[in-house]
Amino acid sequence: MNDDFTGEAEELLDALSRDLVDFEAQGANVRPELINKIFRDTHSLKGLAAMVGQREISELAHALEDMLDRLRMGKIVIGKPLIDLLYDGIDGLNRLVAGTSADVATLTSRIANIASTETRQGSALDELILEEQTRKSLTEYEEHRLIENVRAGKQIYSVEQRFEFTDFDKKLRALTAKLTESGEVISTLPSADPGGGIGFRLLYGTALDEAKVAAIAPQAKITALRKQEAEISLKSASATVRVDIAKLDVVMHTIGELLIEKNQIEALARSLDGRQRNALATVARNLDRKLNELQKTAIELRMVPVGQIYTKISRNVRKLARELDKDIELVLRGEETELDKMLVEEISDPLMHIIRNALDHGIESQEQRKAAGKDPKGRVTVVAYQQGNSVVIDVSDDGRGIDPEAIRDAAMQRGLTAADPFELLFAPGFSTAAEVSEISGRGVGLDVVKKNIQELKGSIDVISTIGEGTTFRIMLPITLAIIQALIVRASGQQFAIPLTSVEESLRIQAREIVTVEAREVLALRDLTLPLVRLADAFSLGNHDEAPDKKLFVVVTRSGEKLAGIVVDAIIRQHEIVIKSIGERLKGTPGIAGATEVGKGDIVLVIDVTSLIEAFGGRAREVRASAHV
Amino acid sequence: MKVLVVEDSPSMRSYVTNIIETEDVEIVEAENGFEALKTLPHHKFDAILTDINMPDINGLELVSFLKNHPVYKTIPIMVISTESTEEDRNRAAALGVEEYLVKPFEAKELVTKLRKLLG
Questions:
Q1: What residue segments make up the domains of chain B, in order of their start?
Q2: Which of the residues in chain A have pLDDT under 50?
Q3: What is the interface pTM, i.e. ipTM, of the complex?
Q4: HEC states along A410-430?
Q5: Which one of B8, B32, B56 makes the best mutation probe of the A interface by having the most chain A beta carbons within 10 Å?
Q6: Of the partner residues B34, B85, B95, the one whose CB lies closest to the CB of residue A169
Q7: Residue range A317-375, pLDDT digits in tens
Q8: A567 vs A486, A512, A564, A576, CA distance in Å?
Q9: Per the CB < 8 Å rule, is B57 touching A189?
Q10: B2-105 has which CATH code?
């Protein structure tokens, strides 16, 4: 063998052996320059061997070079089999250069194997849960697009849907077009599974979350294919941490306690004189400002987008629509609206109950809809949005609407009455559906839904037009932890009215209150405002009042209904932490709980919704019958 | 003998059909994967010839569907494609494609491979 060749080849092989040791040490995170150097040295060796007619050496070096080329393009996964093979390959070359024999055929076939069987561009694709069949059906270009999407931080979804055989091409193209508006349909795989029609699985790369994809393709089964998305997003946006909600509760609670302490300092300041008073008041003001910032941040920590429950909703709606044999289009909007994490979880079941009702009772059968000249496809819309300190969730359907007369008739048979027939929908044991269906059942009614929502300090209303549809409007406070309240006085007792329910406050004279149809009302601009006197509602004494006595009316809103709460004085606005009250007062209409104000004074917190319901518009003559 | 030709380019489709017409086979043409899927239940094919790069569903996806289908999986398939990369050949082979023909090709090559396909 040519000495020059041997010397140069040995040098190259020495370098290769050293680099390979580094390669093994660096593992999967090997520097690209190192792979490139190994590739170049192998390439040089191949050229050198070919030049001097060393066929076996050049053949083996060529095979290794091809493999290294694929490796530097990221097409081969770095692992033990690859490193072992590189060692064996270099060892083989060393033997050939030294003039001993090596099994070149076995080595080249092992190299060919690793190049074709090892996961191509594995590092990126390994982040996906991809079925073998799907993976094998990708063209090289599609695989490249898939990898690009993964690398760009996009989520990859499998979007599976079955179509009628007759028009699957039209429907599938429409779906693909819709998806393409906010992402890339990477692959379209027909499913060989038996069953009616024909199924397709699309691979879809997008920045949208699962709920949004579900909104685009409401009839499809959507699966996120990226593994451990939370971990990946933690890596890419390392400024986030996951926190146990219980710890946030502790923070909120502690802030609540601090606010009470601050209230006590303010109260203490008021009891002092002169300079001391001013000094303490300044401290209290500064403390107040800092606490407000802290409270605001702590509340934000608990906020999660309502969209978290949209995925569950769309899944359930698809399932229900199938069971009911109804064609339903589900529209979900406002998923970015933020709400206290606890509220989002608690509202999920009542919300689903209302949506179930909309599908089952609201939306007519396809035949009925056709007969009424409507689109046979029914539409259910869920919209969330913020309104002041509240979050509103509207569940609307374009179904038959609710007939107030039918409700009245049904209510009469059960001996129920109410001024507003829609109120009756929420009465215990009430149902207008002629038959109890599988879906809605009879066990849990809207009365339970209403109770659940009220427990969350929220309200529910119905807006319905016969033949056109129904909207259930849920209003929730943004958070339950700390609320702003108006401290008022009635018959010498203090009460707190949550500010979320307050529209405005009025100062009036007693004579402005008039009695219409045995109910006390107040003319407010173009409205007739029904009134509730706190003193009467809680039987705090029966004062005769002079017509010119000054009174205050706190105008409150509960859902769509306005009502006025009549009090003797409005003291101030205050942050309060609602605490549960003892068994004796639990369940008392009009009372949400208790709170501490100032120097350990306990005041009752008014539950506006149940107060108006229990005592709203009651005439003065019968006020004595209301007892705490 | 009945053969399905799936090819989105009309000129390539007629080139292929003109060649294999000489082989005394009945030819059904589909200009994309969707058409192929639609026509499959109406015939009993002895062989399928398909392109790879097509809109909607590509040839490999069609092959994957066929080779996993309880009824169609026995139909022999020839992929005719400009995809000359070893990569795509390997993929087609892994999916169970019987023959692979790279464009451009001679009439003779196509005929030889078709005869092999039809046994």
A1: 2-105
A2: 118-121, 229-238, 434-443, 619-628
A3: 0.86
A4: HHHHCCCCCCCHHHHHHCCCC
A5: B56
A6: B34
A7: 888 888 888 888 889 888 888 888 888 888 988 999 899 989 988 899 888 999 989 99
A8: 11, 14, 9, 19
A9: yes
A10: 3.40.50.2300
